[in-house]
Protein 1
Amino acid sequence: MKILVPVKRVIDYNVKVRVKPDESGVDLSNTKMALNPFCEIAVEEAIRLKEKGIATEVVIVSIGDKSCQEQIRSALALGADRGIHVQTDSSLDSLPVAKLLRCIVEKESPQLVILGKQSIDSDNNQTGQMLAALLDFPQGTFASELSVENDIVKVTREVDGGLQTVALNLPAIVTTDLRLNEPRYASLPNIMKAKRKPLDVIEAASLNVSLSSNVKVLSVSAPAGRKAGIKVADAVELINKLKNEAKVIS
Amino acid sequence: MTVLVYAEHDNVVLKSDTAKVVHAASQMDSEVHVLVAGSGCADVANQAATINGVSKVLIADSEEYKHQLAENIASLMIEVGNGYEYLVACASTVGKNFMPRVAALLDVAQISDIIGVEPDNIFTRPIYAGNAIARVQSTDKTKVITVRSSAFDHPGDGDSAPCETIELKIQSEKSSFISEELTKSERPELGAADVIISGGRGMQNGENFALLEGIADKLGAAIGASRAAVDAGFVPNDMQIGQTGKIVAPQLYIAVGISGAIQHLAGMKDSKVIVAVNKDEEAPIFQVADYGLVGDLFDVLPELEALL
């Protein structure tokens, strides 16, 4: 079974985000970039399925300018077999990304596509579900556990209020939640080895997909700040303030 | 030119989030319809009919919709939603699951997690874990939108709107429900609670969360947790508040043993009053807290419980 793992290059989750003074976007110049944390979990899960003998090949795909090859190499260093870079300099909305990924799925015919549930930059949580719809595949989103048996993948999903388990006919789409696994670190020999793994480049324009979106970003601003309040000395003063000043308890 | 809101429920009770989503929807257009899809969900439809601002309820009551599987619900939403200008759902795990399928099948963008509605199809939404707010404008024919319910007030109840039955059964052959395991609790849900008390890594283990329970009982509060507490295995993930968990905005939020990582603040910083209890006086949580108490939570919690 072949597994395709689409991944995204994003700002490192430890970096404090700065909004540009002209409100045109977020300042990413000289910022540390990384593999989106949920994508890392997706890569890890695919590699584990390969180690268990369920998957035969793990293919990584990323869409963006040349710099995203760095994140493809990171995924290869974790144990994926080969990479595909869909080259475009435009920043794309979820739907065009899903359309490009559909082309890659049609080319590669994976049985399972594992994606992160959301990227920590645009926080959309859309691409996996959109890809599933475009391919008419079933989907198991926000997975905390998955198992493959014959032509079926069972996915336990993190839902509000608990867990839900569904069975999906393969080929299927799975998106990862935090507790699915804990990603490994790449070892130095594997980082070296990853440099020699195959990485194909495909021009996004060659895939005949509309890359435009009818949703325009007008401005990006900093959120209204919240000021630090006061320190109280003890529990008695705290209760007193909550009752008489904030009036949130009686 | 009307809005269709997807109702969130457990086949018996309508979630209060739906009313807040109706409030957001009524700022898009004055005519708001609600779709209730489920199995044996007639009571839910009656509850939805009394939300202020709802002019019609559509009910699709059939076994196929019982577990809210995305494949079935997305197809239903597209059939029923034909002719509506806005298709709207709560940005909960249900809405997040099926709405992008709806958008993709209609070949339009989805606007996720909106916190504000302005004229001319302009919406505001948080990005980068709430560290930036994007103002976006849609010119799509159909606008597919999920709403962060905590950003909108409950519109109250009004006269009962008429209900109309939808006779449409859609069953995908490709996915099926196996089981569910729902956390049972006497306490209010995190999304609906006026008071929330949350524990973080400072709680040290799952058993110590019992220290929060006594206070929660006295305040009628829900209990939450930081991602650190969930990652450490203290409590289940459905208690997680933050960028990757639930987003809440109660009247009172009490953070206990939580340092205040960006990803946690993203889930609670819109609370009306924030209280932080932490033994590290440099903890970033104090920068957003209205009332900070520097101290050992194992001393402070029993004192608080005794005083309430």
Protein 2
Amino acid sequence: MKDLKIAFLLEEFALQTPAQQLLDRFLIGYPRDGEFHKPEGMQVTAHLASGETNAELDRRVKDYGLVREQEAGAAAAQANALVIVPRGSGATANESLIRHALEKAPAGCCCFVYGALSNSLDAAKKVMELAAARKSRLCAGTSLPATWRLPDVDLQPGTPLPEALIVVHGTPPAAELDGLEGLWPVIERRRNGESGIQCVQFFKGDALWQTGRDRVWSWPLLAAAISRSDSPQGDPVKDGRTQNLAGLGLVPGLARDPRGWVLQHRDGLKSTILVLDGVIADYSFAVQAGDGTVTSAQLYRPPAPAQHQFSRLAAVLEDFYQTGKPPWPVERNVLIAGLLETFRDASLRAGERVETPALGIAYGR
Amino acid sequence: MNNMHSATHSNRSREMPFIPAAKQDRSRRQFLQALTRSAAAGVLLAGVAPAFASAQEKGPAGRKKVAILATEVRKMSHAQHFIDRFLEGYGWQGGHHFPPFELASLYVDQFPEGDLSRDRERRHGVKIYPTIAEALTLGGSKLAVDGVLIIGEHGKYPRNAKGQTLYPRYKFFKQVVKVFEESGRSAPVFNDKHLSTDWNEAVEMVEDSKRLGFAFLAGSSLPVTWRIPSLEVPLETPLEESVCVCYGGVDSYDFHGLETAQCMSERRAGGEAGVQSIHAVKGEKIWELLAARERTRRLLFAALARSHTCTAPPGYTCAMPNLDWIRRASPEAVAYFIEHLDGFKTTLFILNGLVQDFNYAGRVQETGKILSCQMYLPMPPTHTTLADFFNPLVNNIEKTILEGAAAYPVERTLLTSGMTLFAVESLFRGQVRLLTPELKVAYKPAAPSTYWRA
């Protein structure tokens, strides 16, 4: 096992933030594969961007020998593994912190960015180029690609895939990031891998339901995804009843400010992200293969405060740092950064077909 | 992960409709009226009717009829979970599944504030009968249903000196048997949770089912819910010890914990041999006994490592527990040390304050390999809105009624009922070890594993 010097470059540190969940797992340990696992020979350093006193970080200095570093560059320079965690959900990247860290980190360093890799396609490409120039390995993401699926399914590599859908909840852009992070690990395994995005359409309110009727996106896939939810809203909240929300036509009435994104991929795949607050309170996807079979699952997020989806992500990252092999192609993260940028623009042009020639990013072919 | 083809369903023959948002009708009866209105307006798509043909009011003719006998029906009571799954369907294998039955009758023993049975009667037309006999005969003189569910959990019932709640499961069951005998025919029966708080009654229930030749399914949802990870114990695995770490009360969730362990233990080489002794202890006595059992300690930590709720010290969220922390976090801990007749061991740890989930670890003889998983309960109201662990339980009840054979042996639940009530007895008598010659319940498990994985 390689001795790891891991530096956490953080914008915030508080209980139940991604920063705390990830840092503690490397500092203290976490359950992995049926046993409590403490990464061996690991030196953990933390830099808090605000530089302020932080009682929770100080507690970790006292209890577990966490090393605090005032300068981000100095922390990065001493590390062979980096974790960069922005504020909040991770949907808004701290681009200057990422660039600074990559510039200061030694060659060969493995760098993980929690959440979005950057806030635009151009910036994401530049970060990827900078990492390559520094001979660093880079990837980004949230816990959703790593968490358990109920049931435990995956797409057989090389499966022809005409249509995919994920239903999530939350505020923009965090919910959109969740939708992309939840769906991409599944769809990129399709035949010939990811082909890139040809165009994007945004719909909201009644127009979203009309496009469902018009088969712009798939009601059957939404029904399959909702069938995986353990948190349907409406009457189930009121009196505990099970209810066929999709089949009974209750979804439009329950949804608060519904919004959806339909992505046309260059190879013909159509993928849809629906943000349906008021309908469900968990994340589920459904994909339809070329032979018509539908695979669906809930992306299971264990309860707070432990939020053990971060144990799954920590295991993925520990393997990344030990092997030097990123868990997924950084091109996924570049594409997601570009999509989040496109979403910001397209949300102002609801219903329009927004061509995305710059998002023709193919990988995994 | 499984190959996707192991857990897929065909979508080709089934179209889901879009129903306009206006006037969202919540009950199925209202929905069917809406269906007619919308279809007349030319909104609905082809294939609508087949998608809802199994609804309670519009099911195919000749559907089997089911009666549910409940202690009480209020939000989140066990009976509400079962009744609503039969009336409204539930998420299953990537679709919304409607049980191919008509819920023909209810018997409800108590009507507390917040009762929902009247609402279900009004909305779905399922009649509440004043007696169990009438619920089973639909007001006639002979058995008129094809399956019976006894949901004797929740409600106000007396507790005895041992702390057992005297739910009327045996009493309900005997009234069912009386109708069967008087009708000259029987039907499959499901009994929710343990059979009885009295061993002789539990034995009598199983004997009645064999005497009259009806399928008898019983128990908890723990053996059939999701497992994280999706762990299958192959039949004839040379297991030598099982541990369950869980939470809850004595004569309550302890039964769920015992079912968690037993559905795995019974798959060991030779099958279940029965239980020869039970020793239930509390607090510090647990750790004194555990000091001499290194193997059990390892299994305790292996099971804890599958928990998603293990309490961490103040200022932290993710625990790396040691024995000292377990003792401090769960000062009122309870443990059942159980010895089986073939030398196999089961230990149940009820660690309130430390965990709020059900976790299993078992050790394979010779190799020392540890098999472990969490039996995951999507538990409302804090984490979900539905207690969907009832989905696979209802699905196994459906199979039992349709096939006329229990999806898994009732002897499992006879044994776990016995373990539960003798553990209660052990605590009542001052945490003494009890020999249990009564529990010579040997059986072989069902070959197909029945847990939720698709």
